[in-house]
User: Fold this.
Amino acid sequence: MSDIHPSVGEGKSHDDMIKFWEDYSQQYSGEQQGDIPKRIVDRLFEVGVFQGNDCIMEIGSGPGTYSLEIAPRARILVCMDSSPSMLDRLKSESKRRGITNIECFVKDWTEYVPSKGYDACIATLCPGTGSPESIERMEATARRSCALVSWVVNHGDDLDAMIWKELGKDYGYGFRSSTAVQDWLSENGRDPKVEFFKTEIVKDIPISALAEKERAAFAAYGKDIDAEGIIRKVLGSEIDGDILHYRAVNEMKLIYWDSE
Assistant:
């Protein structure tokens, strides 16, 4: 799915977080990742984290940003997500592409009871999967290899942060620069490999379309906002008439290690 938004979890129960992702499922997009998902999957097969005859579990698959890259090269891909609507999007797209080796099931990762039934396990932008408890659950799931994908820089979230500021909340993304996951792995006897991937996103976006996306996204937080008014206020100098000329370099981090 996605890195947890700064507001998710603040004053919210775990059930509220699950509801948020279900409500947000139709708005979620891998657009800001550009070609990085394919490059990450290519790399995982290149270094042997994934192998062609593998049965792989993906935690927090969302609508399939990584799943649709992994499945054609694996024996079986099992996709877990807490949002039925996210998985419906994945099933629809995999059917359209003729991909038949994806199995989906709805489950909250924190409630999953692991067994060594998979060759490899990957968490793709799934909230909370960098915790020690989650890492150990991943290792109890995968016989050979584990991998985590996280954001380092996502300028697509900058607007969200600015809108939250207009709403009186000073949320940020400082946690994305944290080395806590690889530090914990190293300190606890693992040998993690860390690699970084950048992509440039260039796009002309109609303000009306951007406003609708932000309005729908914030509705999932229970916020009714004047999206276009706020966008024009915070991005005024970057807007040309009714078009935002968007250009940004985003960065993601891949961590992988042996679970044996």
About this structure: The longest strand covers residues 243-258. The domain at 14-156+168-200+248-258 is CATH 3.40.50.150 (Rossmann fold). DSSP finds nine helices and eight strands in the chain. Confidence is low (pLDDT under 50) at residues 1-11.
